[in-house]
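Example record

One chain of 221 residues, shown exactly as stored in the release files.
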Amino acid sequence: MLNFSLSALDDADVLLYVTDVVEKTDKNDEFLSKVQRLNLPVLLLINKIDQTTQTELEKMVETWHEMLPDAEIYPISALNNFNIDRVQKRILELLPESPPYFEKDALTDKPARFFVNEIIREKALLLYQKEVPYSIEAIVEEFKEETDIIRIRAIILVERDTQKGIVIGHKGESLKRLGTLARKDIELFFEKKVFLQLYVKVEKDWRNRDNLLKNFGYKLD
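Predicted C-alpha cells for this chain:
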C-alpha cells in the first residue's frame, strides 16, 4: 500500500498528508523523505485534535513544521467537522484548471463491484473495529442485476481462523448484522432492492502475497 501511495505522487497536483495526535512522526520515514523532495503543494492535516490539549498540539505543529517546512499545516477534527471547510477551500484554490476528463453526467470511472466491495469492507471495519483491524478484504464473486433486484454474492477475506470466528460471531449473528448494514447502503447507492449473500474465507497472510495485493488493486505491476 505504501508503494501504491508513492507511485501516486508522480501525478499529484496537491498532496494531503493525514496524521493525528496519536501517530508518531517517524511512522512513515520512507514516505516522508520523498514528500520532503516534492515540488508540489503539501497540506498536512493533524486529525483528532479534540483528543489533545492546546499545548500538546502546538508542540506537534512545531515538530511537523521542522520535518516539512514547506507544508501548510491544518489541525482538524473529522469527528466534529472542525476546519474541514478551510481544507476543502484551500484544495480548490491549489488545483489547476484543466479540460474535463469525463462527460458531465459521468459519476465515476469505477465499476459497480468496486462500490459494493467498499461498502462491505467499511461496515466490517466499523462493526468489528480493533478486533479485526485491517485484515479484511471484500470480494464480489457474483453481481446479477435484474429488473427489480440486484443479486450479490460476496466473500469476506480474513487472514486467520480466529478472525473468521469473530466476523461470523455466535450463531452467525455478527455476519448477519454486517450483511444487513451493508445491504441497506448498497440499496441506497443503486436505488434498487438488493439480495446480498456473504461468506467468510481464510486466506492466510493475504496482505503479504503480491499476487493477491495486485488483484485487489493495492499494488501496481
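Notes: The longest strand covers residues 149-158.
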